[in-house]
Write a structure and sequence with these properties.
- Strand 14 and strand 15 form a beta hairpin.
- The chain has 9 helices and 20 strands.
- Strands 13, 14, 15, 16, 17, 18, 19 and 20 form an 8-stranded mixed beta sheet that branches.
- The chain is an alpha+beta fold and about 425 residues long.
- The protein has 2 domains: about 5-70 and about 85-180, no CATH class; about 240-405, no CATH class.
- Helices cover about 35% and strands about 25% of the residues.
């Protein structure tokens, strides 16, 4: 078999783009109920196995030699005006350099973004690439030089392919994640996954308000699409409108405290927090009980649905940047699979309120899980978006409400301090 031109037939960038197209085509063909209920990590692993390009790695070369015949011109390979153009068969020596390899053999026929106009020639058979030379009077120096040049050319061309191959392989997981997130957002918007699922939160003044509940040379073994998880109801989430209403209620109650600071200066932790529960439960009622808001621990105010927290309120007293960062960690620890919404009513007692306000935004933005500052409302309300440490795609809306409610210098409240 004659050696053929290597690293020439196909453009590697087009090969990679075809792989991307086929991957997205397969994901597009999956129903939402199948795609969104398949473990993301398993789906990424499946795509990696099926669509990655396995970079070629060369093994140790060896030489096979033998006698053969070669055709030469009647006059030693040179034609003259007096010869008849014929040729004769003469004895010759054949040397074949054989190199085992692993990886996708088709890459031997792909041209990288960097290439030259004189690629090597060879023969690919199974898991061996070879090149053959035939000489009537070979020398060791000639054989070594020919094969060294072939090996050097192989290494150079494979080196030109490697960055594109590695880049594509590294991007597969992100391609899958991006597609799944886009499909999830579309499914949430249209309600195709979670149609009809709601967590009722009625306002006692009879105005309609509900919780929205979106969804949630070895043989290759053909990768199998992972099994979908059993379809379960998506985790509930609090609507933006109700979240805004809750923040307004907290703001109004805190303003009452600011106007009558002495009435609240001696309140202990539980009593202070109870001041927020009263107006909240006066305005909202839960789906299965009269009180939508409840105690969830030492300091938190919670709304829960289906055993999941969908709103968290953490009452804190300012005691420096470090303590505020620790409070954020505490709130983030409550984060469920679905994004939730939270608030930190932050009380300033006997400190410069202007200084406290100036430190809030930089402290919050300095937190490693803060992804954005979403703006202020007035001088004392700060909105942020945070992400889970183990899954950056899961977001938490966190609003800090700052209030100036002085306490007694001595014998003051036993509220847990920031």
């Amino acid at each position: 078999m004659a050696d053929e031109l290597l690293f020439y037939n196909y453009d590697l960038s087009r090969v990679i783009e075809n792989h991307r197209t086929e991957l997205l085509k397969e994901l597009d063909a999956m129903a939402d109920s199948r795609l969104l209920n398949t473990d993301l990590a398993e789906l990424q692993s499946y795509a990696q196995q099926k669509y990655q390009l396995e970079m070629i790695e060369l093994g140790e070369p060896s030489i096979d030699e033998g006698r053969t015949k070669m055709q030469v011109g009647r006059y030693g390979g040179f034609r003259s005006g007096y010869d008849d153009g014929g040729s004769v068969s003469v004895d010759a020596q054949r040397y074949t350099l054989e190199i085992p390899f692993t990886g996708d053999k088709d890459l031997f026929f792909c041209r990288g973004s960097t290439f030259n106009m004189n690629p090597p020639r060879g023969t690919v058979k199974g898991t061996v690439i070879a090149t053959t030379m035939v000489e009537r009077q070979p020398t060791a120096e000639l054989v070594n030089a020919t094969f060294d040049r072939f090996l050097k050319d192989l290494d150079q061309h494979l080196g030109w392919l490697r960055p594109s191959v590695v880049g594509w392989n590294d991007s597969i997981a992100a391609v899958v994640d991006s597609h799944v997130q886009a499909r999830r957002a579309r499914a949430d918007q249209t309600g195709s996954v979670a149609s009809g699922l709601k967590f009722a939160l009625k306002q006692r003044n009879d105005r309609a308000a509900t919780f929205a509940a979106p969804v949630a040379a070895r043989k290759k073994i053909a990768p199998q699409l992972p099994q979908a998880r059993p379809v379960a109801p998506p985790e509930p989430a609090l609507s933006d409108a109700i979240y805004r209403d809750i923040l307004d209620t907290l703001q109004q109650m805190a303003e009452v405290m600011e106007r009558s600071p002495h009435a609240y200066a001696d309140m202990d932790e539980e009593t202070l927090r109870f001041q927020f529960l009263v107006p909240l439960n006066a305005k909202f009622e839960g789906e299965a009980r009269g009180e939508a808001f409840n105690y969830g621990g030492k300091t938190d105010i919670l709304i829960t649905s289906q055993g999941r927290n969908i709103f968290i309120g953490e009452c804190k007293i300012w005691k420096g940047e470090k303590a505020l960062s620790e409070a954020i960690d505490q709130v983030l620890g409550y984060l469920s699979w679905r994004d939730i919404k939270a608030a930190i009513p932050l009380f300033n007692r006997n400190r410069s309120f202007s200084d406290v306000l100036a430190k809030i935004r930089p402290t919050m933005e300095k937190h490693p899980q803060c992804t954005s500052f979403d703006g202020k409302r007035g001088e004392t309300e700060f909105a942020f978006t945070f992400a889970r440490a183990d899954d950056a795609s899961r977001k938490l809306k966190l609003t800090l409400l700052a209030f100036d409610v002085p306490g007694h210098v001595e014998g003051g409240p036993s509220v847990r301090h920031l």
